[in-house]
Amino acid sequence: MISIVSPVYRAEKILPILVSEINLVMERIGEDYEIILVDDRSPDNSWEVMKVLSSQNPKIKSIRLSRNFGQHSAIFAGLTKTKGDWVVVMDCDMQDQPKEIAKLYKKALEGYDIVLGQRENRKDKFLKKLSSKLFYKVFNYLSGGQFNNEIGNFGIYKKKVIDSILNINDYIKFFPLFINWVGFKSTSIPIEHSSREEGKSSYSISRLLKLAFNVIISFSDKPLRLFINFGLGISILSFILGIYYLYLAVTHRITQPGFSSLILSIWFLSGIIISCIGIVGVYLGKTFDQTKNRPTFIIDEEL
Q1: Residue ranges per structural domain of the chain
Q2: Measured between alpha carbons, how far is 238 from 245 in angstroms, rounded to an integer?
């Protein structure tokens, strides 16, 4: 069996098309399948549409979260309900083309545990592509990863891969990072990427940067190490300048005390100290969130 999981948000008009195309593709593949749609508490009528679709097709399982938990938490909610030997994760906006599932599955049968779709001729708007590229630049630098901004969530994953990432108890959920971390035999193949059929992306530049920050703080200690290195650099520079000014004082080359430079130095170092305390505080806050062990999603209804 193949399970297809798709998080749903503002997709009331596109859902019938998505489901119809998935049905056509899966009938051609010839494998048993299930479609799991997860409503991330969309403000439109997506849930009403999902209820109708589930009543018409027993292969469709509809899940509604109690509030908006975010795309990645919605994905994980769907993953907990999968029964298939293979799991496909895809967006609901039809930019991930259902017809590409056949290509991903065929490649997976060559012996891969993970097959990711690499988007060719990405059909997003300029600002969307720019924000995505910026997100992964920042993310790769601070996390030490090598993530390709042309690869998203769309891919096919063996059941053991899904079981492995569901066992990761991190409070901050980021599906591509977990897939990268668990390992297994993986590859990527070029897939067709389409323009958005309806609405606009919920990920603005600011929201992408916030996501990157939260994931990096949750998964990497590099920001702390950067501040340590920066602090050491400031200390070395201060020591060198101290030797230099001592030399000037001994040789009577200082004619006027530098009051303004002293104040600026104090302000500068105070700012660095406050920033360091802030970073440590953020890490402590994330650790506190983790220890509370709150669920990352709550299911309200299932059909």
Answers
A1: 2-220+295-302
A2: 10
Phi, psi values for residue 127, rounded to 5°: -65, -35
Digit-coded pLDDT (tens) for 72-114: 899 999 999 999 999 999 998 888 889 999 999 999 999 999 9
Alpha-carbon span 25 to 167, nearest angstrom:
31
Question: For the structural domain made of 2-220+295-302, what CATH number should be given?
Answer: 3.90.550.10
For 63, list phi and psi in degrees, rounded to 5. -125, 135
Q: Are strands 86-89 and 2-8 parallel, antiparallel or unpaired?
A: parallel
Task: Single out the residue of 230, 242, 3, 195 nearest to residue 96, CA to CA.
Answer: 195
Task: Record the tokens describing residue 96, joined without a space.
Answer: 């991930």
Helix, strand, or coil (residue 293):
coil
Q: For residue range 31-86, what is the model confidence (pLDDT) as tens digits?
A: 999 999 999 999 989 999 999 999 999 999 999 999 998 888 999 999 999 999 99
Q: Using DSSP, how many helices (H) and how many strands (E) does the chain show?
A: 10, 8
Write the pLDDT tens digit of every residue in 166-217: 998 877 788 888 898 888 999 989 988 776 655 555 555 666 667 667 777 6
Task: Choose among 71, 55, 187, 200: nearest CA to 127.
Answer: 200
Q: What is the pTM of this model?
A: 0.74
Torsion of CA 15, 18, 19, 20, to 10 degrees: 120
Burial code (b: 16+ CB inside 10 Å, e: under 16) for 221-244 equals eebeeebeeeeeeeeeeeeeeeee
The residues pairing with 15 across neighbouring beta strands, listed in sequence order, are none
For 173-197, letters b (16+ CB in 10 Å) and e give: bbbbbbbbebeeebebbebebeebe
Q: Is 19 helix (H, G, I), strand (E, B) or coil?
A: helix
